[in-house]
Every structure is written in C-alpha cells, then in structure tokens.
Amino acid sequence: MLNRRNAVALPLAALGVLSAGCVTTASENDTAATEVHIIDEFLAAYRSGDMARGMALMAENVYFEDPTMHLLARNREELSVIAQQGADNFTEIRLTPFNRIHASPWTILQLRLAGTILHPDGQGRSVDVQGLTMLEVRDAKIVRWYDYYDALTFRQQTR
Question: SS3 sequence, 88-157?
Fold first, then answer.
C-alpha cells in the first residue's frame, strides 16, 4: 500500500541507488584515462597512415564492422587486409572528429572523413562525409570497432 511516507521514501531510495553508481574510484579513473589515450593513439595512427601503429592497438580478436562499405573483420589479420585495401584505394585521408562521448569502455566519435577514392579506371573521386565511429577498449586494446557513415552521400560522391 502506498502511503504518504512511502510516496516520499521510494523516490529518495531510488535516487540513492542511482547515485551510488555514479561514484568513481581511482582505478576506474585510471582505466578511463588509458582508454582515452588508446583512442587518441588510434586517431593519430589513422591520420598519419601508420597502419602498423594502428594495428598494434587492436586486440588479436578485434571485431570490425562498417556497413557503409560492407566490410567485416573478425580478427587483426582480417582487419589488416581491409586496412591495406583502404590505403591502396583511399588517398589524402583527413579524419576530423568534432564530438567525442566516452562511457567506459566505449568511445563514440562523431567525425568527418574526407579524401580521394581511386576507381579501377584510375579516376579519383573526392569524398567528404560525416559519420561516427564506436570503439570499445578493454585491457588497453581496441576489441570492437564499428564505423557508420552517411551511405547516400558517400555513394553520390563516388559515382
């Protein structure tokens, strides 16, 4: 039975339970700092085109998915093949994050990806598209990576 006392006490008790989950410990802060550092290193490697540096940040069993480009990798070896194909066909890459949301172990980056896609006929098409990248970091390695870009804009620009 809900009486006046319970009507006040229940929401306050719920707030107490919720706020208890908001307290962070020193080890959680250290973990978050490590995750942020890994993401920063990933971005630096991507921007510089240093594939070896980028792959070193990936877990051996990293899972990568990019539905815009119909790409899927279930480990570092498969991801290396995809990354090499991308490096062979996508030049002048500019990756510009404009928003970052970090909620351990996940980081979501809103970004702009620009560059030139080389077609088999040798012609290049300029691409400038917005999207987001979701990265999960565990044990100082990226274990899951999802890319989602504006597929319609991408296809229109690469015709």
Answer: HHEEEEEEEEEEEEEECCEEEEEEEEEEEEECCCCCEEEEEEEEEEEEEEECCEEEEEEEEECHHHHHHH
**Number of domains the chain contains:** 1
**Residue 143 to residue 119: CA distance in whole angstroms:** 31
**Whole-angstrom distance, CA of residue 79 vs CA of residue 95:** 19
pLDDT per position as a tens digit, 65-118: 999 889 999 999 999 999 999 888 888 889 999 999 999 999 999 999 999 998
Whether residue 10 is contained in a domain is answered as no
| Phi, psi torsion values for 55, nearest 5 degrees | -65, -30
Domain membership of residue 49 (yes or no) is yes
In this predicted structure, the answer to whether residue 24 has a pLDDT above a threshold of 80 is no
Q: Which helix (H) or strand (E) holds 76?
A: helix 76-89
Residue 33 belongs to what domain range? 25-157
The token pair that represents 19 in the structure block? 């706020």
- Is the whole-model pTM more than 0.70? yes
Residue 31 covered by a domain: yes
| Residue 134 · residue 107 · CB < 8 Å | yes
Query: 13-23 pLDDT, tens per residue?
Result: 444 444 445 55
Here the CATH number for the domain that contains residue 59 is 3.10.450.50
